[in-house]
Amino acid sequence: MVDGGENTNDKLLEEGMPMRHLGRGTVSMWPTLGVDTAASTFFIALARGPLPLLDGRAVVIGYVVAGAETLDRIETLGATSGFPR
């Protein structure tokens, strides 16, 4: 269970507009066993710039609003292959 934080996008949610993958700091949920299943993976995007390939496939649940230095530190621990160093 992911808990905490606050929704800073009330206006979009009220209008029924889906949140988009805007890039670095987007917090998303990916259904690992398919649609309508209880198995999901949560992730924070590190890529800079929009990620339109994820829109409609992963659900945006929020955006990182503080702690960018933590994202920077996490990014230094990985490699371009996607595996930890």
Mean pLDDT across residues:
76
Biggest sheet features: 3 strands, antiparallel
Instruction: Please give the alpha-carbon distance between the first and last residues.
Output: 28 Å
Strand order of the largest sheet: 2-1-3
Shape: globular
Category from helices, strands and their pairing:
alpha+beta
Q: Spans of 5+ residues with little confidence (pLDDT < 50)?
A: 1-15
Helix content: 10-25%
Q: Output the helix-strand order.
A: HEEEH
Radius of gyration: 14 Å
User: Please, how many domains?
Assistant: 1
Characterization of this structure:
By secondary structure, this protein is an alpha+beta fold. The chain has one domain. The chain has two helices and three strands; from the N terminus they run αβββα. The chain has helices at 10-14, 68-76; strands spanning 26-31, 40-44, 59-63. The chain has a three-stranded antiparallel beta sheet, with no helix packed on it. Strand 1 (26-31) and strand 2 (40-44) form a beta hairpin. The longest helix is centred in the last third of the chain and has 9 residues, at 68-76. It is globular.
